[in-house]
Amino acid sequence: MLDRTTTAFSHVKPGDTPFVSGGLRDFFLYRDLGVAEATHGKVIAHLVKANMAPETGTGWHRHEAEFQIVYMLKGWARFMYEDKETLVEAGDVVHQRPGIKHFLFDYSPDMEYLEIVSPADFGSIDVEPVCDIPPPTPWK
């Protein structure tokens, strides 16, 4: 049976929380959707959008998380998931299995995605490069 006492009801409207810097990556902006507070840190849900053109990307890393999905809302992003290049476009959903080594190296100026991760305070750990990274597409 689901324990309803460990989470709270949450309803966040578009104007309730702004996009802000200061998240995991300085070249993205993040909008909190209230889920981390409602779940007492069990899950985070936020919108992430491009703020600057890609230069170096995220670097090779993995997350200390039990669950992570990315749902691309607008634009596109190119990732390396281990040694496989993956184009994620608007409407695509990616489940990143725990510990997968990856690198987001390119994205469109209008890129925006929903990210849901458990736990909310997941860690990001730099890892040794898996393979070479293609160059990003210059913004015009």
Automatic annotation (TrEMBL):
Residues 51-103 form the Cupin type-2 domain. It holds the Pfam family Cupin_2. CDD domains: cupin_bxe_c0505. It comes from Polaromonas eurypsychrophila. This is Cupin type-2 domain-containing protein.
